[in-house]
Structure formats: structure tokens, C-alpha cells
Amino acid sequence: MKRSIIKYFLSSVLVAASFACHKLEVPITTELTTDTYPQDSASFITASGPVYVVLRGNYGGVEWFMQQSLSTDESIMPARGGNWYDGAQNLQMHYHTWTRDNGYVNGNWYWLSTIIGVSNQTLDILGKTETDGATKSRHLAEIKMVRALAYYWMMDNYGRVPLDTVAGDYTPHENVDRSVTFNWLEREITAALPYLSRATGSSTYGRANKFMAFSLLAKLYLNAEYYTGTQRYNDCITACDSVINSNMYSLATMGSYLDMFKYNNGPSTPEFIFAVPYDPNFSNSWPFRSVNNYSRYDVPRSMGNVATNAGFNYFSIPFVPGAPRSTIPSFYAYFYDENDVRNGQWLHGKQYKKDGTPITITTTYAGYDAITYAGNTSPYTYQLDITPDVVLRQSTALFDCGNDEVAWNMGYRNIKFYPDPTSANRNQNNDVPVFRYADILMMKAEAILRGGSATNGASALSLVNQIRAQRTTSTGWTNITLDSVYNERSREFAMECWHRNDMIRFGKFENAWGFKTDNDINHRVFPIPTNAIKLNPNLTQNPGY
């Protein structure tokens, strides 16, 4: 009987989610009855599963990452001989010329709206069950935290968004000022906190617990001055202290920092407060999919399963990487300390096999450099060399580096989420963190520097040095500034989807980098997608779009 009920619940939410892009609520029909299911914690977890499944849909190195990272100096994804031009959406992210029809702008509005819509429906159904008490309250609070996270991301990215939190309300809502969403988020999180579990580890891994809520609250308060015009740095410190004083989390050691992001990470990772779990065997049907595709975009083609490399496969992955994504020299410059273990997340310069012999590629002269050696089909062998500069040598207008080995090896590559050799497809097992303990320490340090009161004998300097003691053998800092905190955040949280948020808060999002010169402050938020406004004419477009 339970299996039948679960199947119908999943089916109903799947159908509902397919319509949840811009109209967050749709009718739901299900065989789930309020007097028979769920009755215990295990069945509540099963019933709330779709909320967590849809959460993982865009997060693992795909659309969400593209919007957060390609819009910054952290990543760039130029075309290579027409490949990966993708209707100019990658060009637009880099130049800050995105439109209301940009694929990432649309896709992430759709994804976040779907999380909210599925959460609303699930809360409505489970809230009507006759089961009562602590178990029900805890699981409803967990779902509310996933919804709050989606609303936080939506507010951060799109500014004024509609607040739609009641299942069955089909009224087209207006988008409200950020201060309204901010206040709703603060009330929602603080109201849920008493009911959330303090448990960590495998029992709550991948689900929202009390410390996930404190982390989200800290992030909300740290950015409060930008969102509302009012500083909340002491409140940020209080939220951070709630995590720190719990003694539930610790920093990864210097020797395990890079392991924290590998394909065998999970509940034992001491820094992960809240992570999105991935498994390449899960469904890949939108929006209930499991897609962690970091390696697909970041690994050089000649270091994967590629026939032109005489069968050599450095990472033992079962696919040919697309390899379009890299960084630019100005971001890599943050990694100047040769004693820092975080340098190990980058591929750069001449590459060698694990036995120390050079990785060599055999192609033709034209295959190596089609511009210099056009038409020359004589064999050519070279050592793989990942170069720092991205040069639009084929077409500036089309954001195109060219379609030869020189072009495909431009730009240093990030392998923080290390390629997964255990997967039979291009998806990875690497779980991806949303909140880490290092971020709690860094947020507290920054809040102190911005005017908050130090607590528990910890200064901004001591907090950052606490992190650096587990990242580098270089001497600890003797002074600290907001700029040095920003630089440290760039090193510590590279490729973890917080860099755009950081750049805006530190006033660096309007700077020039790479080929981008745009300095329009309106571009701190993305436009409301065209389709969203068609479905809900009560939405007002953001300024500048």
C-alpha cells in the first residue's frame, strides 16, 4: 500500500512541477490521504523527497552555476569554432549584456519557481495529515527551509519577485520590493528554527537542519545592507555563533581540503552544513534530475576518454569532455601562494601523466593551429599545455577562440569537483556544498570588519587565520582588510556559486575583467524573463531591461 501511495505522490508532484515555471501553483490530484499517510519520520522523508529532488536539478555545475559564475571574473565560456556559442547566452553572461530571453535567466527562474511550487504543494498536503506532533512539525520546517533557500536565491538574482506561498492560490501576484521578501525570509527562518533538528551526519545529510537555517540567516543578514539599506552585521554574527558554538562542525584539514569535493564525499565531510547530494544513477528527467556536470565543462578534452589521444585517459572518465569552460588570469591571480593547498584545484601549464612523463597529443599542424597552419595536414605532436589567456582569435563578435588544439587548451581549468571515474556516464557522484563551516567563519570575520561586535574572543583576523592555518603553510596574517577578506573568499569558495554574491557585496561587480567593460549597476540583478511576464502580467520588469 505504501509503495502505491508513494508512486502516486511522486507522479502528482511531477505533473505539477512541469507547470510550475512562472505560475507557482497548479491543481494537484493524488491518492495520498490525510488520515493514512504519512505516519512516521521515514514516511515524511519519503513524501518530502520531491522537494529535495527538484532542488538538485540546476545546482551541480550547470545552469545555476553558469549564471552565478560566468557573470563574474571566476569563469568564462567562449565559443570554440562555433561550439558552445549557444545563442550568445555565454557571451551575454561575460559581457553583462544578458536579455530577458537569455537561456540561463529563463532556466533558473523556472527552476527556482519549481522548487517553490513543489514546496508549496508538499507543505499543503503534509500539513493536512492527521499525524501531529514533533515529527510533523520538524519535516514541515525542513521543507520551509528549502523553499526559503529558493526564495533567497530568487531575491538575490532577480531582485523584486512575487511572494507566492499558499497552495491553491492562483491569483497572479505582483513582484514585491526586496525588503518585503527579506522580512518574510527572516520571519520564515526564525519561525522554523525551534522545530528543526540539531542532528548532523548521515541522519540529516542533504536535508535542512537547524544549522542550515542559521547559515541561511547569516547569509541574509550579511547582505542586508545591500538588500534593504539597513545593516544587520551583529545579527549575522549571532547567527554564525549559533553554528560555531554548537561544536557540530569543523574545518577540513590541510590534507583533506581537496578531498572534501571529490566523488566519494558525503555525510562524513566535517565542513558540510548543507550539501546537495548527487548520484549519476538518479533520474535525469527535468525537473526531477540529478546532474553534476562539472567535469563535462572543465576537463580538457585530451585528458578524458578521447580517441585522438591514443587511448590515454588521465582521469579515467567514460566520456569526451566538452571542455569549454575556464578561468581568466585576473581570477587565477588570487592563487599566488605556492604553499596553498587550494592551488591543487587548478590545471595549468604543461601537463604530465601520473608517472611524470609528458602528456603528448598527436594531430596535424592545422589541427594544432588552424590559423597559422591552415591546410597543413602533416602530423604534429605536442605536449599538452594549458595556457592562461583566452584569446578570441577566430571572431570577437561571436566570442570565438577557434576550433583547434590551441583554442581548446586556452584558459586554466578548475577541477575542484574532481572528475568521477566511478560513474558510467558524464554525471558525477560529487555532492556539492551550499553552506560550509569555513563560510560561517568568513561571514563572521567580514561582519566584524564591517562594524559588527566581536564575540567569544574572536577577531576578524583570528577567524581568517583559523581557516588559513588549514589551507597554507605560509605564515599567518598580521593584519586584515575587507579587500583581503574578499581575496580569501575568492580562493576558498571558488566554483561554489557564491562569487557573484560576494562581488556585488564588495562593490566589484561593475569592475572590468576579461573582455567585459559594463559598469551598469542595474545588472546586479537579472531581468524578469519574457515568458514569466506573459504568464503573469502583474509582474513589473526590473530597471534597465
From TrEMBL:
Location of the SusD-like N-terminal domain: 86-222
InterPro entries xref list: SusD-like_N (IPR033985), SusD_RagB_dom (IPR012944), TPR-like_helical_dom_sf (IPR011990)
Residues making up the signal peptide according to the UniProt record: 1-22
Domain RagB/SusD residue range list: 270-545
GO cellular component: cell outer membrane
Entry keyword set: Cell outer membrane, Membrane, Signal
PROSITE patterns: PROKAR_LIPOPROTEIN (PS51257)
Keyword Membrane set for record: yes
Main location: membrane
Record localization: Cell outer membrane
Family according to the record: Belongs to the SusD family.
Protein name: RagB/SusD family nutrient uptake outer membrane protein
Source organism of the structure: Chitinophaga sancti
